[in-house]
Amino acid sequence: MADEAKAKGNAAFSAGNFTHAVMHFTKAIKLSPTNYVLYSNRSAAFASLNNFSEALSDAQKTVELKPEWSKGYSRLGAAHMGLHNYEDALSAYKKGLEIDPSNEALKSGLSDAERASFRASMPRTGPGASPFDDAFGPEMWVRLASDPNTRGFLQQPDFVKMMQDLQKNPNNLNLYLKDQRVMEALGPLLNLKFQTRSPEENAKMQSDADSASSTAGGSTEWKRPKPEPVPEPETVPMEIQEEKQKKEIKALAQKEKDNGNAAYKKKDFETAIQHYSKAIDLDDEDISFLTNRAAVYLETGKYADCIKDCDKAVERGRELRSDFKIIARALTRKGTALLKMSKTSKDFDIAIETFQKSLTEHRNPDTLMKLNDAEKAKKELEQQEYFDPQIADEEREKGNQFFKEQKYPDAVRHYTEAIKRNPKDPKSYSNRAACYTKLGAMPEGLKDAEKCIELDPTFSKGYTRKGAIQFFMKEYQKALETYQEGLKHDPRNQELLDGIKRCVEQINKGSRGDLTPEELKERQAKGMQDPEIQNILTDPVMRQVLVDLQENPKASQEHMKNPLVMDKIQKLINAGIVQVK
Asked: Using the 8-state DSSP alphabet, how is residue 137 labeled?
């Protein structure tokens, strides 16, 4: 909104509506009270209204906010000149030239101030005095810029050159009286009005829209080229060269950036910082200089400096409405620096938040990966900070007590806390698997039993828990295999042996045909859901084997000699798919 108000102010200034320009610049200042350019622009508008006291106040604020900006001293000098404070004007122009010795506007202002100071010290009577000294004095440019009939002349280099000559030597006026522009300029300079065209010419000019708007109020009718809007209003004609100077400064800043990039590639980080810093001083409207310097600070471990540059880049970038990708880059670099500085899991929060902000500006895959890594690292660090084997043992004992009292949900809660405190302890997983079994939550119990075996393959309880759950799920063949695997680590474990016995009984019950039709149908349905059974049934070789078992006894006997075929047939029998009579 501040930029919008500033743009309206610039447009009003270019149109010669200085009162509206002051109003818009004032609104912009309220929205952005630290923007020195706004004070500079309003100072120019006040000066155009001959309100030099307010112009001086704004010029002083401009210099206070940006003491290294040469234009602020140009504004300050112009305000002092309007107030006839010639010594103060001299001081302001000289300070500006110390910052920017090649600034033509400051040089011209200094020259004007010197002449005005000299004239002020000389008597105004005598043969050496000229009635046009005041007309071509230091306020000349302000008067010409303020008058709508002469403002457009300031865009014409030949007119500017003539007026500069008259300012140096008013006695040369006779040389330029044939130029109607000079004659018309004498009106505002001498507070007079001249008729430089015939009534017929005036009538013709009145029909022109541009002339009609520029001659309102009965002023002279000279047709002027329409002035082009400028981004920053100026009060002296020499400042029309400022755009060129600005481009030259930007080119110098870019060169410093290129030198910084070259030094960075060579890992000469100190030199890179020096070049980037010079670029920043020359041009504060390109935030890539800040993000590049932030990258060097990040590389050298100066994380606080990196964050400071990134914050400045984001703030300035929003003021300038810079490319959102560059703002996102600054936020990503800040997040990376914050990540490097993180020592606790809570420290990761602000880094994660910064990465998320960056992604709202531009969804960069590299930033997304950094965010995911940060969230993963935070979770791991939280687990490390929460790790406490002693508290884990205490929680597990509390869970055991609730298990004995058959308060299984409470037992699950304490076993879960024990796992959080020590996620590498297989006993807590085993105990929680037993709780889930009691609660009928078989999938959860099976998952805990498998985790228990993963953590300690020699822990027998893991196999008994898993086998029991598989048995309750009527997956007898799988349960049998689990118990057998457990016996490899603990051959004399009675629970594992009893489990095998129960599984064999159930499997044999099916193979003998002792199952009721309902039980057989249920077992077959469960078997058909087993991927291994599905693979066996879709295997062309096994399909032929099954056909031979029914139609070709001799061929089937040969098949039975193959251990792999026999093993698959046994699995089909156990699943109730094949029945032996």
From this structure: S
CATH architecture observed for domain 387-511: Alpha Horseshoe (1.25)
Q: Which residues make up the CATH 1.25.40.10 domain(s) of the chain?
A: 2-124+131-214, 284-383, 387-511
Residues of the chain with CATH 1.10.260.100: 518-581
Tell me the CB-side half-sphere exposure of residue 251, using CA atoms within 13 A: 6
Six-digit token pair at 482? Answer: 């689990």
Residue with tokens 């008013």: 170
Q: Give 512's pLDDT tier (boundaries 50, 70, 90).
A: low
Residue whose C-alpha is closest to residue 109's, from 284, 234, 252: 234
CATH number attached to the domain at 518-581: 1.10.260.100
**Which of 337, 327, 335 lies closest to 362 in space, CA to CA?**
327
Q: Rounded to whole angstroms, how far apart are CA atoms 52 and 38? A: 17
Q: Which residues contact 497 (CB under 8 A, 6 or more apart)?
A: 483, 487
DSSP 8-state assignment for residue 578: S
Give the 3-state secondary structure of residue 101. coil
Q: 331, 352 in Cβ contact below 8 A?
A: no
Q: How far apart are CA 32 and CA 316, in angstroms?
A: 12
pLDDT digits 0-9 by tens, 274-324: 999 999 988 888 999 999 999 999 999 999 999 999 999 999 999 889 899
State the pTM of this model.
Answer: 0.41
| CA atoms of 530 and 574, how far apart (whole Å) | 12
- What b-and-e string marks burial along 106-139, b requiring 16 or more CB atoms within 10 Å of the CB? bbbbbbbbebbbebeeeeeeeeeeeebbebbbbb
The pair phi, psi for residue 184, each rounded to 5°, is -70, -35
The CATH number of 284-383 is 1.25.40.10
Structure-block tokens of residue 457: 């393959």
Q: Which residues contact 423 (CB under 8 A, 6 or more apart)?
A: 383, 387
Rounded distance between C-alpha atoms, residue 513 and residue 457, angstroms: 37
Query: Residue 1 is inside which H or E element, if any?
Result: none
Q: Residues, the chain, total?
A: 581
Asked if 358 and 331 touch (Cβ cutoff 8 Å), the reply is yes
Q: Name every residue whose Cβ is closer than 8 Å to that of residue 440 and which is 6 or more positions away in sequence.
A: none
What digits encode the pLDDT tens for the residues 80-127? Answer: 998 989 899 999 999 999 998 888 888 888 888 887 776 666 555 444
Instruction: For 2-124+131-214, give the CATH class.
Output: mainly alpha
